[in-house]
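Handout, section B. The chain below has 201 residues.
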Amino acid sequence: MDREADVTVTVSEIDRLHSQLSRLEDMFPGYRTEIVEGAIVMSPVKPHHNETVCEVRNALKAQLSEEWGCIMDVAVPFDDENEFCPDLAVIPKAESAKNLSAYSPDLIELAIEVVSPGSIRNDYEIKDRAYARRGIPHYLIFDPYKAHCVTHWNPGPDGYLGRDTLPYGKTVVVETGIGKLSLDTGGLPVDPGAPGSSPTP
């Protein structure tokens, strides 16, 4: 199997999808699995992806009040055709402390995705619309292949009405309902194939 390519299995019933998820994850370790538009999508995870998630999570945890916590790669069912696993999501700590296998999108104050080669459309288009329609106030995309962060706010029925693209090296500031959050992108890893990239120390 080409580990650079996503694996998509088209099925029609949500119960059947769930029954296949655990088997596929066991068969293909190192893949991130979601249900997107009625299909099981498995994306390979690379070191820069995990490093970005960890760096952003650490920065967020240092700024969040005691009432808020982070979940990572946990199922968030949206409807019968979409069950996303945000790389990071900020939800009330009382909810994350329940240690559940799935959470409602209505709990999310901030959703964060890190782009992988096969997740470009999902992150930039499908999740933009889905997260906005569900009223998630803020959505951030970190892209090690373009070396930038895209911030989204002001959710609407067709996607977010506000967005900014900041090149890595800038500080991303998000004015949320739970306070101002600042994320320094200067140390985030950049893929060697990204335009103008240089190796991360």
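Note. The CA atoms of residues 44 and 159 lie 26 Å apart. Compare this with the example in section A.
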